[in-house]
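Support reply, case 0932

Customer input (verbatim):
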Amino acid sequence: MVFSPFVKISRFDIGDIDLYPIFVKNKIMPELWRIYGMRFFFYSREHEPMHVHVKSADGIAKFNVSEKGAELVSNSGMKLKDINLALDEIIRRKEIVITEWEIRFGK
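Our regenerated output:
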């Protein structure tokens, strides 16, 4: 599939939030969704265990994701309220994270 920075691409319909690819230094960073001023994404070359990165205005955090839920792995500057909001959103949409991970990186 060829991605264009001018074309909106969505794989899931989750209300008013769609999935977009984000270009960084000519490499694609698959974005899962944006909400509460935070961006939920993967890097283009990820590794196990399954995880998602979250960027806010204040910092960035990483959360491991599994069928059982999600947990904070690292935080660099994100406020506690944003971490809690991000964790709640990841748990609420963990099926999207798991499906997107498997599509992009395999099981």
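We compared this against your earlier run and they match. Two observations from our side: Residues 1-26 have pLDDT under 50 and may be disordered. The helical segments are 80-92, 94-105. Please reopen the case if you see a mismatch on your end.
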